[in-house]
Amino acid sequence: MENAGVGWIAAIIIGGIAGWLAEKVMSSNMGLLMNILLGIVGAIVANWILGLLHIQPLAGWLGYLITGFVGACILIAIGRVIRR
């Protein structure tokens, strides 16, 4: 999150928005705390995947929102596979 140029409070807010968007797109039913966690952990996962692919992660608020959203969608999909 330090590289994204956002602080902890902004990361929580952006993570919550990214998790909520992923929840709506993936038609899942999570609470506020889980949305925040999905958004923050999702951003970490997406940045890790981008690093493996040698792609420069997006910077700033919008970049963090996009990577958090994509990562949260990935985490929701993995969670669905594991539950089956």
TrEMBL record:
Q: Which family does it belong to?
A: Belongs to the UPF0410 family.
Q: What is the lineage of its organism?
A: Bacteria, Pseudomonadati, Pseudomonadota, Alphaproteobacteria, Hyphomicrobiales
Protein localization? Cell membrane
Q: How does it sit in the membrane?
A: Multi-pass membrane protein
User: What InterPro entries does the record point to?
Assistant: Transgly_assoc
Keywords linked to the UniProt accession: Cell membrane, Membrane, Transmembrane, Transmembrane helix
Membrane-spanning parts: 6-22, 34-55, 61-82
**Whose protein is this, by species?**
Rhizobium fabae
Q: What is this protein called?
A: GlsB/YeaQ/YmgE family stress response membrane protein
Q: Name one GO cellular component term.
A: plasma membrane
* PANTHER family the UniProt entry points to: UPF0410 PROTEIN YMGE
Superkingdom, taxonomy of origin:
Bacteria
Q: Which Pfam families does the record associate with it?
A: Transgly_assoc
